[in-house]
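Appendix C. Worked example: histidine kinase
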Amino acid sequence: MQPNDPKAPWSEMHQDVNELERLIQEMLDYSSSGAQLPEMNLAEIPIKQLCQQLVDRIAMSHLQDLHVSVLGDDVNILADEHFIERAIANLLINGARYATSTLNITIEKHANIIQINIEDDGAGVAKNMRDKIFNPFYRPDESRNRLKGGAGLGLAIVKRIVDWHKGKCFVETSQLGGAKFVIQLINHF
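Step 2, the predicted output written as structure tokens:
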């Protein structure tokens, strides 16, 4: 049912329903991904291009009012595109929640490692929470409002996807002053 005045409480109710749908989908995705290792469709992916396309796609919904850059090496990775895109999207959306004005994605190629960094200029993650932050349902600040918080599954999903790719993920302090989330994958090329 659509009310005559879409601006009143109807809009807030609609936002609440959308948030519940996102939370339910996140929980379903997490629980189904734990059952078994999914079939991985490994392919050669130009990771910098994938990151730029992802930024372009979610710019209006999650990245408005932020300066977002995709920087670094133009390299390929061997990965499942759907899952790696999901992991990077989760980190971008997480970074956008806490960034003040800037969000950077940097791709670095080291001898046998491809590193994807997502950095923001927000408050960062306290050192005593860095090991816990990838645990399912963990939220570092229970007092956060609903606009900033989620169900505590986004980073757990990132970790699971990176584990499937036999990589590492962690968080440290960004040169921008906020959090720097890192995905490291083996360089197969």
